[in-house]
Amino acid sequence: MRDLVDLSPVLTELGRRFTAAGFEAHLVGGSVRDALLAAESGEPRVPGDLDVTTDARPEQILEVLRGWAGSTWNTGIAFGTVGAEVGGTRIEITTFRADRYDRGSRNPEVAWGSSLEDDLARRDFTVNAMAVSLGPDRTVTDPFGGLGDLLTKKLRTPGPAVDSFLDDPLRMLRAVRFVAQLGLTPDDEVVAAMTSLAPELGRITAERVQQELSKTLLQASPRAALELFVDTDLADVVLPELPALRMEIDEHHQHKDVYTHSLTVLEQAIALEKADPDAASPDLILRLAALLHDIGKPATRRHEPRGGVSFHHHEVVGAKLVRKRLTALRYPKDVVEAVARLTFLHLRFHGYGRGEWTDSAVRRYVTDADDLLPRLHKLVRSDSTTRNRQRAARLSATYDSLEARIAEIAEKEDLARVRPDLDGNAIMEILGIGEGRAVGEAWRFLKDLRMERGPLEPEEAEAELRAWWAQRS
To answer: What is the pTM of this model?
Structure first.
């Protein structure tokens, strides 16, 4: 750890300043954890944003930083935290804490700690309860065995897990995230506490829940974390539509395990996302759509004669459920609408058959997807989880055919910007009308015509418009 700290001139100078002022200062928490992981991988580096703890009080911290830090902020000073920016590096410096929590509101009753060990004892997990001194000796403090847990990929709490999660139920979702982010395995005590205290998540604001869920989904391999999320009943509290996919399957009415299928679709979508050099990765919208695309199935399941099972219109029901749940979790409106639209469209390809779609149907597929088309391609391809290699190859080849059709038509037409062949001004001039509802109706008629027949010459479009107007009148 001495080498890691010495890699950062900012930490070296920070330690010198606190030592000269007679205070302790320690790099702590996720900063230490991530630095240790980097060192283990053979690429020692200091994380970009740093967490430091000290026995200095907030006003003394500000005095130590005076004249050195490029800027400071004290929005967290009531909790003992001073923020600073030095040479592009952000640092949060917090006075030793020994908080007690109001278990009704989850708000801490701020209390200054008397030692580094007090401060580490209040942290969420042992892997985040390590510190390295910024003083000359660079002493490593690890009272709860965090380094050993990090090396053996174990997730434990410094004290009793029940107490830790009752203090802050959000820590249970952080446990889920660390399974995905760090590849850790929670011990039996942690899993038991998460399961028994799952209802406590109801005390957490939707915004905080959404942030943790999103961070989990954006990790490289979130499947194991999502399985923990469901198995401990945490999902029942904040995303009940996911465990609802574990529908009972009886010997007479067989269908695919929708829950397992959805997790596999997510994995396959992530693989396609990573393989696409033109796509942003990680892609939250694609991953939410992959996970939730079938959430309309439980409500639409019907047992058919001869042991069949149907899910008619589950994409329509699913889109409504997506809007309701993601809105409740305070996702931005554009994310909600994008995931809902992908859910609604994910089945349309199955009407393509072996290529029976007209050019009009291909145009509608493209224009309905609009800017979500690249994501829709990935979602539809990922939705094939059959183990039948011949069927999988056939589905892939059929979708290749559709994409080729799209490319062929796009060469002739600007499918990304399908518009009527006449604009609103031309419509009003030709029909001799002013602004109003009729112009909108005419515009939609011409757009439908454009979708059906492709680009028209102005004279042909005008003739069709006049014929439509005469029939309408």
So the answer is: 0.83
